[in-house]
Amino acid sequence: MRPLNVSIAAIALIASAGVAQAHPKLVSANPAANTAVAAPGKISLTFSEKLVPAFSKAELTMSAMPGMAAMQMASSAAVAPDGRTLIITPKSRLARGKYVVTWHVVSGDTHKIAGNYTFAVK
Prior knowledge:
Distance between the termini: 71 Å
Radius of gyration: 20 Å
Shape: elongated
Number of helices: 1
Number of domains: 1
Number of strands: 9
CATH architecture: Sandwich
Strand order of the largest sheet: 2-9-8-4-5
Helix content: 10-25%
CATH class: Mainly Beta
């Protein structure tokens, strides 16, 4: 009967180890989702886990408006020294309008997580 108890304990330990590995979650964004702000010089996305810089990127797109198609904005994205924050820096000042931040990140668990949100420049 004792080997059965050891087997059950081993299975429980293995199952709980999988639960400990979480995926990165977006904790905060600046500018925040669905806000209207003055033109930001940078956009920061902070995640719950350290990111793998080579596989963590973001794009900034100005939403379509009457008479104008959606336009990807020239920008760069880099992981900040804290390892948890992805910084998007537009190459030029953002004009008034709505923007979509589209991101994908990878943390130590090697799973790619993606998302997006919008904000407006007033």
